[in-house]
Amino acid sequence: MDDNGDSYVSGLAEESNRYFLLKFSAQGDLLWQRELDSASEMPLVPLLLYRDSGEPRVGLVVPEYLGYSVHTFSSEGAAAWSSTLVPALPENRSFDAWSAAFSADGHVYVVGHRDYDAGFAARHSGDGSADWVRIESEVDLRGVEVADSSGIVGWGYGFDEPTIVRCDALGNRLWIRTLTDEEGWTFAAWDLEVAQAGKVYFAGNACRGGDCRPALAALGADGSWLWSQILAAGFPYDRGFRALSVGPDTLHGLLDRASSGEAFIDVLSFTTSGESLGVQFMGPFSSALSAESLVDSRGWLRFAASVQMEAASQLLLGSLSPTGLLQYATHSWVDLAEGGTCDLAEASDHGLIVVGEKSI
């Protein structure tokens, strides 16, 4: 969503097998649409909204044969610049993009893997070329976040365990850390955010032997281990945290759990130092399919989830105020397909835009 309240949606049209970009007004009217061909059927990397020299831009990272391309457009739908990364022959080794992020100075960062034997990170600018490409032989990168204006934090899987790597704006590695603590717990980061001070917060699960539990943890700006929270044994959670949202003083993790044939969605809140602030419970539902969350400009936690009630998929919307006031409701007028919610955005009037997939 841009500063005017207009929304952008991207995806792959199954009938034409072409990638699309749509812009909707704040009232829900379609303003324009663009389509892009691709030689690949890999999933589209989520679109990016950013500013390039003060001008609003929307960017798409499109899979290509052996590589990918970055396409950027103005807010009016005009093509701005594009950049393609395809390895040169005879090396002929593919670059598959998994995630992308943008920095305040207009650069687009892309991470992914190269032929399943290494990860890579690349930075693109408006001159149509990749500024640099870094091969990470120790980690297959699956996600990326920009760390203020001084580089990126990427995360994924090393040869033996989950790994986080920090690079500066020129692609030089600052540090790399495997996610195993002193007590032998190995953490899988399913969602990650970088705070303004450079601290890294991540949520997912932690496993030791055959014991796996939901967990959150924090690293310092230098990669040092700050703290972790691992839920006690016996909690009825069969998966790790679904989503993580970080506010100025708090962080929130969303979990789904099953108990006696019923499903619930819980919000667990913590201080940025790892101290528990309590749990909020929602349900019961027949099942819970997915959940997404964000912290809005007022410091409220906003969340959406796809849940099953009375054999029908429904949309759960809710909010948690900075003082801990929970409000939520289900809406039967939304029939989401399997996979549930896809993304959230805050509207200019503090409303919530939910983008999902619907079976037709």
What's the short version?
0% of the residues lie in helices and 61% in strands. It is mainly beta.
Characterize the overall form: globular
Q: Which sequence of strands runs across the widest sheet?
A: 4-5-6-7
| Terminal Cα span | 25 Å
* Overall average residue pLDDT: 83
Biggest sheet character: 4 strands, antiparallel
**Structural class, from helix and strand content?**
mainly beta
Low-confidence region ranges: none
Order of helices and strands: EEEEEEEEEEEEEEEEEEEEEEEEEEEEE
Rg (C-alpha, Å):
20 Å
Helicity range: under 10%
Number of strands: 29
What does this molecule look like?
The protein has 360 residues and is mainly beta. It has strands at 7-13, 18-24, 30-36, 45-52, 55-64, 67-74, 79-85, 95-102, 108-114, 118-124, 130-136, 140-146, 152-157, 162-167, 173-178, 186-194, 200-208, 211-219, 225-230, 243-246, 250-259, 262-271, 276-285, 287-295, 301-309, 312-320, 326-331, 341-346, 352-356. The strands form eight sheets. It has a four-stranded antiparallel sheet with strand order 4-5-6-7, with no helix packed on it. It has a four-stranded antiparallel sheet with strand order 8-9-10-11, with no helix packed on it. Strands 12-13-14-15 form a four-stranded antiparallel sheet, with no helix packed on it. Strand 14 (162-167) and strand 15 (173-178) form a beta hairpin. The chain is globular.
